[in-house]
Amino acid sequence: FGRPWHVDERVVDAGAIAQPTPSLAADDYVFVVISDPHFTADPYPLPSAQFAAFLASESADFVIVGGDVADAGLPEEYARYTDWIATLGVPVITAVGNHALYNGGWSTFRTEIGKSFFSFTIGTVTPRTFYVLDTASGTVGRDQLDLLREAFAADPDPKVVVTHYPLYNDGDSPYFRLTNTAERAALVDLYATGGVELAIEGHTHALHHVTIGPFEEWVCPGPAGPAGEGRCLVVTVVGGAIAS
Question: Which of 15, 91, 118, 160 could bridge across to 198 with cysteines, CB 3.0–4.6 Å?
Answer without folding.
Answer: 160
